[in-house]
Amino acid sequence: MIELKSVSGILGEGAIKDVSFRLPNGKTYGVFSSCYADAVCLCALMSGARTPTSGVVLAGGFDMHREAKQARRGIGFLPADLLPDNELTPMEYLMSTADARELPYDKTLRHAHELLELADLIDKKDRLIANLSHGEQRILALLQILLGKPEILILTSPFSGLLPKDAQKMRDLIRYFGDTYTIFLCTPSQKDLCNVCDEILILQDGTLKAVTPLTNEELLAEYTTTSAEATPEPKKTQKRKKVRWAMLTEKGDEYEIIDTEEKEGKN
Fold it and tell me: String of b and e for 10-34 (b: at least 16 CB within 10 Å)?
């Protein structure tokens, strides 16, 4: 399980403000934001790649700051720009990353073969990565994360820039591993969020507004800011409709948004 307690942080143009939630294991979660940079920031904070300016991130019960080694051991993080060394073959790449993590050789070699076969890359295991498509390279980056068998996968922009067939393969892999891992998906594609995820976290201006199992149509209708005028007058600022948010205020069996003020009052 991963939990955030009053977490705030900044990454580039993205920012998170006093976000608290608890996500149980066994589901695929996604994040939809009015600013995609905020969603990317959230993933970096959750994974430990970025240190919060305030608040606590817990992974598997371990504090990401005070117990970083134990907390990060259970997390596999795929940043948006992660690509493998293109001077290696897929098998060399997987085994070199496994060696860096001091994973057992024989067991990892079998696991690498299984992953490559699952991703339809087994016939390319001895080709240079430079000769693979961008999508195949991103899939390979995902596979090396899976070698360590983390409990939680945090995936940032896994479909961006991929050819349609590679994007579909990535979706199929995420769905397949969703039965084994807890997955947190960050993508600007609303369609992918709703087709792949069980629950969606809604951010607006860096703050958490809801966790919901919305369909794509509901997501578009309820949470996308739309133009109030089809043809705005020249030299006038186009007014935008206010976004309607369904605030979650009750604790549920599957997730919980923690009320910061209530929590602090109990201490």
Answer: bbeebbbbebbbbbeeebbbbbbbb
